[in-house]
């Protein structure tokens, strides 16, 4: 960022803990000639139903606040726009962004293009659920520059969709994919979840096959995670179902990699697979610890080591307006130790791995260079990590132990 531009977070209306000094909530961020953020995340929280496994901020809004939300987000985008460089990636998540009315989407996208400059070939992704992919909405998104849709299929098996509290008809998925493409949006990503209670390897193979039949160029295959505070976790603790066996989860994971690789979709992150050139550039910006701005309730941003999160409550988001900026509930100042730990945690999950010389150089002032090198070597001896002078990358077996490898590397930092 240039010296005349600073990120100013809201102070008066921030929902902050007492441990955060009030003055810290308006940090000026100067970085000389450092580039401005080129990625932007927007969070649209509305959902038709709260799925039992989901821990993202989303609401079933009974007060019909879509108009108020859109007007509020426009004000926040106007506040953020001077801080952004030409955008290379935009990602709209939720919630279910495709629940926003088409007329409000049209207004939001019109204002968006008035406020921001996009790089030629910028990636513009919107998350959609199959039942909300309509002939009314998709042309509006396409006309507004959206060129990538991430569709939450999760499963093509009706029983498993019921377990996950997903309410769409799996037969709707091919129709939704066709609607996306007829609107002129060529790039399609599909989300699937493995390890659903009662799911067999054959059923998982059927899900992969059905997703590939949609012609997707990108597939995110996540193992079901029981997040604290979710209805799914509460049901597990009540004994309503049994968690999938670890060995079966590992078999499903290895089957995913082999099946998708045979069809031209290679793994570039632990849970993400794509045809060459179809990797999600926005998510890569996260995993590479680049800078990004964010708008909407619960949206998290990262700029030059500063991290903050908007309040995860729609009422507070609508009411709190500090010259357009949203109320903030979390703020972290730049910290070399945390920055290194974050890069190790996300970098090791990528096919490209960790930049070893940079990691060791950043560990040196923390008196952790030798310990970090030894931790990497120990993971190599286990067969989990390939260690060269330039990079540390997971082996194929090592991807099954990605969390363990990341923890071992991070624990080497005092």
Explain what you see.
- By secondary structure, the protein is of the alpha/beta class.
- It has 2 domains: 22-287, Aldolase class I (TIM Barrel), CATH 3.20.20; 336-414, no CATH class.
- The chain has 14 helices and 15 strands.
- The chain has helices spanning 66-80, 102-115, 138-143, 158-163, 172-182, 201-213, 231-237, 246-262, 281-287, 314-319, 336-347, 356-363, 369-381, 402-410; strands spanning 39-44, 87-94, 118-128, 148-154, 187-194, 218-223, 266-269, 272-274, 293-295, 300-303, 306-310, 328-332, 354-355, 385-387, 391-394.
- A 9-stranded mixed beta sheet has the order 7-8-6-5-4-3-2-1-9, with helices on both faces. A 3-stranded antiparallel beta sheet has the order 10-11-12, with no helix packed on it. The chain has a 3-stranded antiparallel beta sheet with strand order 13-15-14.
- The chain is globular and about 55 Å long.
- The model is unreliable at 1-28 (pLDDT under 50).
């Amino acid at each position: 960022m240039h010296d005349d531009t600073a990120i100013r977070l809201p102070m008066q209306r921030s929902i902050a803990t007492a441990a955060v000094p009030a003055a810290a909530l308006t940090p000026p961020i100067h970085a000389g000639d450092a580039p401005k953020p080129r990625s932007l995340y927007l969070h649209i929280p509305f959902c038709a139903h709260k799925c039992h496994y989901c821990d993202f901020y989303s609401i079933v809004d009974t007060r019909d606040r879509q108009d108020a939300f859109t007007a509020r987000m426009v004000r926040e985008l106007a506040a953020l726009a001077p801080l952004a460089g030409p955008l290379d990636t935009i990602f709209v998540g939720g919630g279910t962004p495709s629940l926003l009315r088409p007329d409000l989407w049209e207004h939001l996208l019109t204002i968006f293009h008035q406020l921001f400059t996009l790089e030629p070939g910028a990636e513009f992704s919107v998350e959609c659920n199959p039942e909300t992919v309509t002939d009314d909405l998709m042309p509006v998104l396409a006309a507004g520059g959206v060129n990538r849709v991430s569709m939450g299929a999760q499963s093509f098996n009706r029983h498993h969709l019921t377990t996950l509290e997903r309410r769409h008809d799996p037969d709707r998925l091919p129709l939704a994919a066709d609607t996306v493409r007829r609107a002129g949006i060529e790039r399609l990503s599909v989300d699937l979840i493995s390890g659903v209670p009662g799911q067999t390897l054959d059923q998982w193979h059927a899900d992969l096959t059905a997703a590939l039949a949609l012609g997707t160029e990108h597939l995110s295959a996540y193992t079901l995670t029981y997040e604290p505070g979710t209805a799914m976790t509460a049901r597990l603790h009540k004994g309503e179902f049994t968690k999938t066996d670890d060995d079966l989860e590992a078999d499903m994971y290895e089957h995913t990699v082999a099946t998708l690789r045979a069809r031209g979709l290679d793994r570039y992150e632990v849970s993400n697979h794509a045809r060459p050139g179809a990797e999600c550039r926005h998510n890569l910006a996260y995993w590479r610890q680049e800078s990004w701005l964010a708008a909407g309730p619960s949206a998290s941003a990262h700029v030059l080591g500063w991290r903050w999160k908007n309040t995860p409550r729609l009422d507070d988001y609508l009411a709190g307006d500090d010259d357009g900026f949203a109320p903030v509930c979390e703020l972290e100042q730049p910290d070399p130790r945390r920055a290194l730990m974050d890069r190790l945690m996300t970098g090791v999950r990528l096919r490209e791995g960790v930049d070893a010389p940079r990691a060791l150089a950043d560990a040196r002032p923390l008196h952790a260079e030798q310990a970090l090198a030894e931790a990497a070597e120990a993971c190599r001896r286990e067969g989990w990590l390939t260690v060269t002078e330039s990079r540390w990358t997971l082996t194929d077996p090592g991807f099954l132990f990605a969390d363990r490898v990341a923890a071992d590397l991070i624990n080497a930092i005092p």
